[in-house]
Amino acid sequence: MKPLFFKRLAPFQARLDSHWRGSRVQQLWHAWLSELQAMLPAAARARLLPPVRERLIDWPLAGQVHAGDDERLILVLPASMTLVQTLLLPTAALRDLHTVIGFELDKYTPYPRDQLHYVARVTGKQGALMHVLLVAILRERLRPVLDACAAQGLALQGVDGRDGRGERLGVDLLPVGQKPPRHGRARLPGYLALLCGALLIGCTVLWLDARTAVVEAMQQTVDEQRQQVQQVQNLRRELINTQGAARYLARQKVAQPTLSSVLVDLTGCLGADTWVEQLEITEGGAVSLSGQSARASALITRMKDCKTLSDAQFQGIIQPDAQTGKERFSLRAQLRKEAANAP
Predict the structure, then answer these.
(1) Is residue 169 within 8 Å of 84, Cβ to Cβ?
(2) How many CB atoms lie within 10 A of CB 323?
(3) ∠ at Cα 331 (325, 334), nearest 5°?
(4) For the segment 204-248, what is each residue's pLDDT rounded down to a tens digit?
(5) Residues 6+ apart with CB under 8 A from 268
(6) Of 64, 61, 111, 63, nearest to 85 (Cα)?
(7) Of 252, 269, 282, residue with least CA distance to 308
(8) Pairing of strands 327-335, 309-314
(9) Which long-range contacts (CB under 8 A, 24 or more apart) does 246-252 make?
(10) Which residue in 164, 190, 184, 166 sits closest to 56, CA to CA?
(11) Residue 337 has what DSSP assignment?
(12) SS3 breakdown of the chain: % helix, strand, coil, rounded to 5?
């Protein structure tokens, strides 16, 4: 089950390697890792990042090979064992370079696709085209080589090849399923990537929390301002009602005659033979007066000439007073309302 899984994963891994190897992103990643490592103290750097030396082993092996723990073993195959082609492909093929070359592999090699193990690396671009280095090897040739290395206990980190001039091709022909587990320093980039992802998520959460706090503060400020506006509107409504009541009372007060004018009017209407003992004027304009008169029955007729009073009526009956010889009366009347522009 496990070999089948790695076999299915191989095209995907090769595609990632073709995109990653020699790319601008890889260069930036290595530069960033170097800067981070340089920031660590020397003691911590020596403990966490022990120096790893890359050791090249040429095939065929020259006797027994002993590898140290701090060595990264790379097996280098001679030029006679690999098939090397330089291809010129459209840039669009870079999206799935491994699959594209797999479909066209019969054109570049004399062997069927299922008998070859191949990798591809982009070496340069020229306008809409790109230069691709194709390196292939027969599986029946690669398998004995890997078995011989495994028999000696060698944990290979990669398999490279040489060209006709003896220089390294810069590829990795080691199948994905046979790569040793990553330990120590090899896992550091993965840990750093996880750390960066966690920091990015943390920064995003903190930013969202800060924005939420700002929004809540703004909402609280808006609510307080809304309450203040409501209070101002209530005060304005009360002020308008108070002003209306004040204007109404002022109009009512202006419409009613003054007390002095009522007394002067009563003096002229009632005559010299009548005097008032009690006078009461209510806020509604009702007038009640009582007193004595020589001719009390004629008072209603006399009061019709009053300019400030109207609707004069007797309250009760007229009674003679034995001491004064006059008639005691009690009247009720209503004040006349004056016009707003009356003097």
Answers:
(1) yes
(2) 6
(3) 155
(4) 999 999 999 999 999 999 999 999 999 999 999 999 988 888 887
(5) 305, 306
(6) 111
(7) 269
(8) antiparallel
(9) 251/340
(10) 166
(11) P
(12) 50, 25, 25
Handedness of CA 260, 261, 264, 265 (dihedral sign): negative
67-111 pLDDT tens trace: 666 677 888 888 888 888 888 888 777 777 777 778 878 788 888
3-state secondary structure of 63: coil
Q: Sign (positive/negative) of CA torsion 148, 154, 155, 158?
A: negative
* Sheet of strand 71-77, all strands in order from the earlier edge strand to the far edge: 53-58, 71-77, 156-161
Q: Omega of the bond prior to 11 within 30 degrees of 0, cis?
A: no
In this structure, the strands spanning 319-320 and 309-314 are: unpaired
Residue with tokens 């990015």: 200
Distance CA 82, CA 135 (A): 7
Q: Tally Cβ neighbours within 10 Å of residue 180.
A: 12
Which residue's entry shows tokens 């299915």? 8
What end-to-end distance do the CA atoms of the chain give, in Å? 116
